[in-house]
Amino acid sequence: MLDAVIEGGLIVSPEGAKPGAIAIRDGKIAGIAAPGEKLEARERIDVSGCMVLPGLVDAHVHFRDPGLTHKEDFGSGTRAAAVGGVTTVMVMPTDKPMTTTPELFAEKRALAERSAHVDFALQAGLGPDTGHVRALCDLGAISFEVFLADLPPPMLVATGEELLRCLEAVAAADRVAGITPGDDSIVAAHTALGAAGREESRRAFLASRPAVAEAIGLARACVAANAVRARIHIRQVSAAESVHVLRALKAAGVSAEVTPHNLLLEEDEILRRGPIAKVVPPLRSRADLSSVQQALRAGVIDIVATDHAPHLPEEKAQGEVDLAKAPGGFPGVQTLLPLMLRLVEDNVIDYPRLVEACCEAPARLFGLFPAKGALRPGSDADLVVLDPRLPFVIRNEDQLSRARLTPFDGWRTPASPVLTMLRGRIIARGMQVVSGPSGRFVRP
Fold first, then answer.
1. How many other CB atoms are there within 10 angstroms of residue 67's CB atom?
2. How far apart are CA 101 and CA 90, in angstroms?
3. How many CB atoms are located within 10 Å of the residue 37 CB?
4. Which of 231, 279, 319, 367 is deepest in the core (most CB within 10 A)?
5. Residue 126, SS3 per DSSP
6. CA 437, CA 439: separation in Å to the nearest integer?
């Protein structure tokens, strides 16, 4: 006897979409049956007219827990993930304190296990001191995050020798190094000090992080990774210059991500919306958007991840006149799927590429596949049901993140997520979380 059968819908995979029924037993997918095949189950869920996707895997989120929980915590962040159809998150180490030691890693895991509504993996921070890599690997760190810019010492990896040493340590542990590319010297040279006024401060921020800084950091990482045979994952590709570097230097063991906002929002949004749209790397030009969209479609950029980075509305409001006073970042985990549907509607990608970029590829790159990211026998029964008969509107008032304000407020998308399931259990219906915390720690 099966626990449940999801029947009547189109099952979407990177290979295409086809009708079928998903058989679930003990939290796993027991099989995929042809339409009309008789299956005995305790519960039957009819999703006729809908599309069934694997639960999305967001490989880049900041949940601010521990130390910054006034902005977000594991409970609020994972509730937002659940209603957005994201069933696995990979949590960055940039909290307070940063997740850099075995003790801090274990404490963070315990915090999440008490309150997470979706499954989670933890990423460890790595600076020039590589002494904890092996122990963190043994505890289940899914990646080691290396910052070439935008963090101060002791976490900043500033020199080529430090970068090589970090990558050698991660390669020896058979893990992935997440690389935040950039060049602090270029950023410092382009940062306008004392820019006064609403428009002046917004233009100064856009100028402070030129695309060339990102591209140089990306090139350094690719060359270093090749030299020591390390696997690296490039965070937040945002510009045409970076795409050119990826096309030239990307080799086996190098992967890359792009965020929904760097696929969809142009730099004028900063001038118009100010702190609501402030993010690092900044929003780019129309030509940059076109370049990263093409790179995603062609597989030069492998995955889409959100860089979910929440701040309270009152924190953002401090930068309304002087943008330098506002923190960078905004919520994203709840809007990932709707925005990917917008890209499908705009013919940037299709549904199979959506599943590949947001489900299967991130799970593969970080060692979670096929338990995560797929609808196949033996996989966890993590899925999201979309109803294309119900257009969807992103609204600030529906955001479950404590940040609440999204630059995509009012955007319309062609389908609505109507049901999210984690390991065979329904955790969200529409915009409502319908179960208590049941997320588990997952490791490569």
1. 12
2. 17
3. 13
4. 279
5. coil
6. 6
Query: What's the CA gap between 14 and 16, in Å, rounded?
Result: 6
Closest residue by Cα to residue 404 from 93, 80, 160 = 80
State if pTM tops 0.90.
Answer: yes
Question: Going from the N-terminus, what domains does the chain have, and what CATH number goes with each?
Answer: 2-52+378-433 (2.30.40.10), 56-365 (3.20.20.140)
User: Closest Cα to residue 54, out of 83, 31, 7, 88?
Assistant: 88
Single-letter residue type at 51: M
Q: Are the CB atoms for 433 and 83 separated by under 8 Å?
A: yes
pLDDT tens, residue order, the chain (444 aa): 999 999 999 999 999 999 999 999 999 999 999 998 999 999 999 999 999 999 999 999 999 999 999 999 999 999 999 999 999 999 999 999 999 999 999 999 999 999 999 999 999 999 999 999 999 999 999 999 999 998 999 999 999 999 999 999 999 999 999 999 999 899 888 886 667 789 999 999 999 999 999 999 999 999 999 999 999 999 999 999 999 999 999 999 999 999 999 999 999 999 999 999 999 999 999 999 999 999 999 999 999 999 999 999 999 999 999 999 999 999 999 999 999 999 999 999 999 999 999 999 999 999 999 999 999 999 999 999 999 999 999 999 999 999 999 999 999 999 999 999 999 999 999 999 999 999 999 999
**In angstroms, rounded to a whole number, what is the distance separating the alpha carbons of residues 258 and 119?**
22
Query: Looking at residue 360, what DSSP letter applies?
Result: I
